[in-house]
Amino acid sequence: MYRMMLLFIIAGILIVPTATAQDAEAIPPIAAMAWTTDVNVYLIAGGGVQTLFSQGSIALPSGPVWSQDGQQFAVAIFENHDIKRLFTGTPDQNELAPHTNIGWGSFTMSPDFERIAYVSNGDMFTVVPLDGSERAELIQFEPTDAATPGNWSPDGTWILYTAAGQIHRIHPDGTQDETLTPPTLVAGGGAWSPDGQWIAFAASIRQREDPADIFMVRADGTELQRLTDYREGAEAPVWSPDGSAIAFLANIRLDNESNLINQRDVFTVTRDGKHITRLTNTPANELAVQWSDGWIAFLREDVQFPNSGDVFVIRPDGGSETQMTTDLKANWFAIAPVIP
What we know:
The protein is mainly beta.
């Protein structure tokens, strides 16, 4: 049985619910949490809160992101949208380890947390080992490519990246650069299935004004499948731990006294696209979604504080919805499973 570790970017008060003997199975246990405010990084573990990093107002922390085993996390300090410093840590340590000479740009970490991939503000796609050994410069992009690094495959042998609206994969040493999505789509991001055989992503039809929907393609670029068809769009696909389903966010158009508005809710779709389940249906927007063990966690917007809110969890069948925080004002969160 996995415990859940929740990682928050917050600007509020954290409240963790407790469970009685009768409802213990209805609330996932929380082993530890780390979070950032606009300027600080915190960790709570073993009942105590630590201030791991205090940045000041000129730069913002981004992340944190977790290793696959949930035993490490990384935080990047950004200024003017570029990495200035990267720090890594573990739940049981008191200080973050700084890494210098990483470079500037958006980043992703390898599953073993030994390498970082980033696209610099000079549009160079680079992989840097954190042990200080030689970096690999993979691709020089054009500024018009709007290139961003994507997720590493579960075994660490491939890195996704998006350039000019298409998803590609490449080995960390720069070999075997392959395009995975057709030019008829404008795609971005990409989530690897747990077995590394499929990639789920959001894409729209090029030269049309339709919003994005959820697609799936084999890791070698074959067997492209469209999984959703929503008039107002779908985004943010995340795989279930067993790879049988994908959770995502979709916009639903409502007619509120003749004023058309969108409501973003959490859905799941089976990997064959045949069964779609709507899990949430409230006036509030769901801002982000993550899947861990037997739960789906999501961030529900606080109507008084747009683009921020509280963390909830729900079962994949739509049952046992539970509010995990109150007055959190989070704008992002991440989950890492931890084996007891």
